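Handout, page 2. Input:
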Amino acid sequence: VVAIDRRVLFVNRELLGGLRWDPFPYARITGVRQERGSILDKVSVFAADNSATITAVDPEQGRRFVAHIR
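Output:
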């Protein structure tokens, strides 16, 4: 995941070596949530027509990411 000045980009590696980009422009983001796990967290970003979740996130990095998006 990459947070840049105009959007959040989720980059996923495909099974056969390709990349899939899911852009989330800040203007379309409707919510962001961090869910705590026993060791690692999950961070979800929601938009009007899409959502994405990052798993196995360091809790401190997750807090900083969520604060940046908000």
